[in-house]
Amino acid sequence: MKYNIRAICANLLYRVLEQGQSLREQLPAAQAPLTEKDKAWVQEVTYGVLRHLPLLQFWLRPMLSKPLKGKNKVIEHLLLVGLYQLNFTRVSAHAALSETVNACVTLKAPSLKGLVNAILRNAQRQTLPQPEDGAVQNGLPNWLYQHISQAYGERAADVFNAMQHKAPLWLRVNRARVTHQDFLQALTEQQLDFSLSEQHPDAVILNQFADITRLPGFAQGWFSVQDGAAQLAAAYLNPQADERVLDACAAPGGKTGHIAELAPEISELIALDSEASRLERVKENLQRLGHQASIICADAGAIDSWWDGKPFDRILLDAPCSATGVIRRHPDIRWLRKAFDIPALVELQQQILNALWQTLKPGGHLLYATCSILPQENCQQIERFLQQHTDACLLPLPGSDAESVGRQILPGEQQMDGFYYAMLLKSE
Ligand SMILES: C[S@@+](CC[C@H](N)C(=O)[O-])C[C@H]1O[C@@H](n2cnc3c(N)ncnc32)[C@H](O)[C@@H]1O
After folding, report:
1. Could you report the per-residue pLDDT of 356-389, keeping only the tens digit for each?
2. Torsion-angle region of residue 157: left (phi > 0), alpha (psi -120 to 50) or beta?
3. Distance between CA atoms of 163 and 125, rounded to whole angstroms?
4. Predicted confidence (pLDDT) at residue 1 exceeds the cutoff of 70
5. Counting atoms of ligand 1 from 1, which one is nearest the CA of 230?
6. What is the 3-state secondary structure (H, E, C) of the chain?
7. 273 a known binding residue?
8. Atom of ligand 1 nearest to the CA of 370
9. Is 301 in the pocket of ligand 1 (CB under 6 A)?
């Protein structure tokens, strides 16, 4: 074997935790030379370390006389990988130890083999202490732990629990290409285990691991991968034939595709995003699914730069946000996102929302959405908008309770990601 999967994990963790890079973007290249089994192992271990990082650091800190620095820093990440294996995986302690020690050579720090060996042996021999700190117990940075505790009180424990678990794989059937029934039949023929959700007429939840590209009809665009909470967007937006619809922060196009599926007779669908590279993904996705939309690369908030003055009947604003609702899917988010990002995001959302409101027809609908669970980005954002815009009123959404401003879905609720929706109607 030419590679050492522990060293690969340590390097990936170094890039996320020391250089602020996204694990999702780093994983494919790191996994490319690996066998399928090793790919899965690297994903499981890097995700696991990120989920339990504060606990692993709580154990490691007293064992290291001083933090490692410079080019040796990566060995700290290797030690986290070692501790994770010993405490959370079924890898034999012998393999965990010897392979992790060997990784020091791959990581160009052979002189630290003795240190890694001593620390991991020590950890293996003792009963490791359990932390009292809630943030450490729940694998979160303190600021986020506090925000969620304050926002959700007694319900916070369920939120923390859901954030520590793997998310199920949701598919959305492309009704323009195949019926739900025929798709289910194709899954059954491949002996795939799945379940359905009453609230989601286009959805299938796979109850097992699967390579998406090998599922029936992938190349033919029979389905998309999309969480159940995100699948509510197009249904809530409820686009109608002959309408002009804007998907304002569209990339990679998950919701654009669904809008096109629900309203094939739509008169105009515009997918706008400020990131040109992400818009390429929109084009690829729409092409695979067999849908069409006009693509605009622009800042949604700078309407003078892209709006032709023709008002929209419906707008979906899937706003840039903290992504705190999808942490169970992307465990690096909890470390990449910082407390000071939140006010800046709230301001950006407010600015885009205010600008887009001007492009909405009187009598038109704007659906505001985020994959956040922080009230500042969600109900508080919409409350302020309603106070400042007397021509806006909030419409109830199926599934929301009467007292709430919009619908806040918490991670794990009916197997969905954390998400927020508010439907605004512009008075005539
Ligand atoms: C939550 S993601 C959208 C996900 C997408 N709606 C989907 O379902 O696939 C938010 C998007 O907002 C885009 N964005 C951020 N700031 C923007 C701005 N000022 N104008 C337009 N798009 C923006 C980002 O590039 C990102 O693609």
Report:
1. 999 999 999 999 999 999 999 999 999 999 999 9
2. alpha
3. 30
4. no
5. 8
6. CCCCHHHHHHHHHHHHHCCCCCHHHHHHHHHCCCCHHHHHHHHHHHHHHHHCHHHHHHHHHHHCCCCCCHHHHHHHHHHHHHHHHHHHCCCCHHHHHHHHHHHHHHCCCHHHHHHHHHHHHHHHHCCCCCCCCHHHHCCCCHHHHHHHHHHHHHHHHHHHHHHCCCCCEEEEECCCCCCHHHHHHHHHHCCCCEECCCCCCCEEEECCCCCHHHCCCCCCCCEEECCHHHHHHHHHHCCCCCCEEEECCCCCCHHHHHHHHHCCCCCEEEEEECCHHHHHHHHHHHHHHCCCCEEEECCCCCHHHCCCCCCEEEEEEECCCCCHHHCCCCCCHHHHCCCCHHHHHHHHHHHHHHHHHCCEEEEEEEEEEECCCCHHHCHHHHHHHHHHCCCEEEECCCCCCCCCCCEEECCCHHHCCCEEEEEEEECC
7. yes
8. 1
9. yes
Tell how far the Cα of 308 is from the centroid of ligand 1, in angstroms: 20
Q: Is 371 annotated in the active site?
A: yes
Q: Is the pLDDT at 93 greater than 90, yes or no?
A: no
pLDDT(403) > 70: yes
Average of pLDDT values for 47-62? 97
* Structure-block tokens of residue 68: 């490692």
Q: Closest by alpha carbon to 226, among 198, 195, 257?
A: 257
Please tell me the distance from the alpha carbon of residue 173 to that of residue 170, in angstroms, as a whole number: 10
Distance 167 CA to ligand 1 centre (A): 22
Catalytic member of 9, 104, 371, 379: 371
Q: Which atom of ligand 1 has the smallest separation from the CA of 352?
A: 19
The pick from 227, 249, 280 for probing ligand 1's pocket by mutation, whose C-beta has the most ligand atoms within 8 angstroms, reads: 249
The verdict on ipTM greater than 0.90 is yes
**pLDDT value of position 50:** 98
The pair of three-digit structure tokens given for residue 93, joined into one six-digit string: 């302690």
* Residue-range domains of the chain with CATH: 5-131 (1.10.940.10), 169-225 (3.30.70.1170), 231-426 (3.40.50.150)
Q: Is the CB of 251 under 6 A from ligand 1?
A: yes
What value does the mean pLDDT of the chain take? 96
The average pLDDT across 27-38 equals 94
pLDDT at 91: 87
Cα-Cα-Cα-Cα dihedral sign, residues 384, 387, 392, 397: positive
